[in-house]
Design a protein that fits this description.
Layout lengths: L4 E2 L2 H10 L6 H9 L3 H13 L3 H12 L8 H13 L3 H13 L7 H13 L3 H13 L7 H12 L4 H13 L7 H13 L3 H13 L7 H13 L3 H13 L7 H13 L3 H16 L41 E2 L18 H5 L6 E8 L2 H10 L6 E8 L2 E11 L2 H10 L2 H4 L4 E4 H9 L2
Antiparallel strand pairs: 1-2, 3-5, 3-6, 4-5
Helix pairs in contact: 2-3, 3-4, 4-5, 5-6, 6-7, 7-8, 8-9, 9-10, 10-11, 11-12, 12-13, 13-14, 14-15, 15-16
Length: 440
């Protein structure tokens, strides 16, 4: 299963403690902190060759992150292995990542399980979160929510924000603990306040849209900006779409494009497509107002993390070096958007501005057909499904976006992909649709 991060983080935290003593590799640590990685390497190499596990861990991180040459996961794995054999918990944690992902070694999740178990039992919070993750999903062990929550709590007690976040999700879903909205918000807020990007993103969405808590556009935007500045590609993409189309936030095309570019650099597929669409649109129709024709946020947006079983992200794989995440080439696929689930959004549609407009793409009496059509629609147009009665029949319709006025809807209609426009979609008043739904 792909993972988003590889580590520099546990090593720095580990060395900050151990380097206080007058040991030979202290000079290597000083060089490392000064970013003189070649000097650190030259000091640590003879120590590691003599069996010094701490120095071996330092070499592993240098090779893992390509600090003196290109990245070399095979050599990194060799030094992780040696450090792990010396009982270094951080090395066991990092070697577990290698086996879990199959980077530099043949993938073996059973070995990852054993390594993370050993590191977790030694008290390393980063390993405790991963060990909990394995039990959440039943990887190399039976699915066991009680064991998962136990390890998450141990990690959280040490200040691990990923663990706090996942505890919140377990309360939200009622998995391993009783479902409890207040506890969900408590743990989510704790993780957000301590800088966990995913928690900031989720809480920002909830504030922005008033989901489960009082709505505050200002607080929601601030949280999303914090998440974006903490390299959350989802937050960068979401804010980019808001600024681009002027939905909720004042239009700012320049800022929107910068945010979308940052998300695209982190591998966000929808952001990449949005930038392509913006570029194509500018070339083909100079009259279009880009800020009002770009992809819109999903209706009734909820934290993406809550769409799957409690531990939404793959383990937050950090190597030990100062609690600073270093992103690897491996990325976690974006979770399936909530709007792509064939959920009836009629209630959500009833809560929208009566003077707004949407673009109807199709309508049918066959619910399965509408659901299949919905799944084929690109995320960038924010499709949703709603239903209404017509005589004795129930109709299921798929529409795209909510637009604040008719001109905005007309521009968005031009922005729809060619394969969507060929079915002759049409603009509809939200107020009129609300009357139709209410008359059922």
């Amino acid at each position: 299963m792909p993972v988003r991060y590889t580590s520099l983080a546990l090593l720095l935290a580990f060395f900050v403690i151990t380097a206080q003593a007058s040991t030979p590799y202290e000079l290597g640590w000083d060089a490392f902190q000064s970013r003189n990685y070649k000097l650190a390497h030259s000091i640590w190499l003879p120590l590691a060759e003599k069996g010094d596990g701490d120095a071996a861990l330092g070499l592993a991180v240098i090779y893992e992150n390509g600090l003196i040459a290109t990245k070399d996961p095979v050599t990194a794995t060799k030094w992780y292995q040696m450090a792990a054999e010396q009982g270094i918990a951080e090395a066991r944690h990092d070697l577990g990542i290698k086996y879990f992902t199959g980077q530099g070694v043949e993938q073996d999740q059973n070995k990852a399980y054993e390594l993370w178990k050993q590191a977790a039992e030694s008290g390393l919070s980063a390993a405790q979160t991963k060990f909990a993750y394995l039990h959440i999903h039943g990887i190399s062990a039976p699915q066991d929510f009680d064991t998962a929550i136990k390890w998450y709590r141990q990690a959280a007690s040490q200040g691990n924000t990923e663990a706090m976040y996942n505890i919140g999700l377990m309360y939200q879903k009622g998995v391993g603990v009783p479902e409890n909205r207040n506890q969900h918000l408590r743990w989510l807020t704790m993780a957000s306040d301590r800088g966990y990007p995913r928690a900031q993103y989720d809480l920002g969405l909830m504030k922005l849209h008033g989901n489960e808590i009082d709505r505050s556009v200002t607080e929601g935007k601030q949280l999303l900006l914090k998440a974006a500045n903490n390299n959350s590609a989802d937050a960068q993409y979401y804010l980019g779409t808001l600024y681009l189309n002027g939905h909720i936030l004042r239009p700012d095309k320049e800022l929107a494009i910068k945010l979308l570019q940052r998300a695209a650099e982190h591998g966000h597929k929808n952001a990449k497509q949005a930038l392509i669409d913006i570029d194509n649109l500018a070339k083909t129709d100079d009259s279009l107002i880009i800020g009002k024709t770009s992809p819109q946020p999903a209706p009734e947006t909820k934290p993406a993390a809550a769409q799957t079983l409690p531990s939404v992200s793959s383990p937050d794989n950090t190597i030990v070096l100062n609690k600073k995440l270093v992103e690897s080439d491996a990325t976690t696929p974006d979770p399936e958007p909530l709007i792509k689930q064939a959920t009836d959004r009629s209630t959500w549609l009833m809560a929208q501005d009566t003077e707004a407009y949407t673009i109807q793409l199709m309508a049918t009496t066959q619910q399965d057909r509408a659901a299949q059509y919905l799944k084929k629609m690109p995320d960038s147009i924010n499709p949703f499904l709603y239903s209404f009665k017509k005589g004795s029949d129930t109709w299921y319709a798929v529409a795209a976006g909510i637009h604040m006025d008719f001109n905005q809807a007309r521009q968005a209609l031009k922005y729809l992909p060619t394969n969507v426009r060929k079915n002759s979609p049409w603009i509809r008043s939200v107020g009129a649709l609300q009357q139709i739904i209410a008359s059922q």
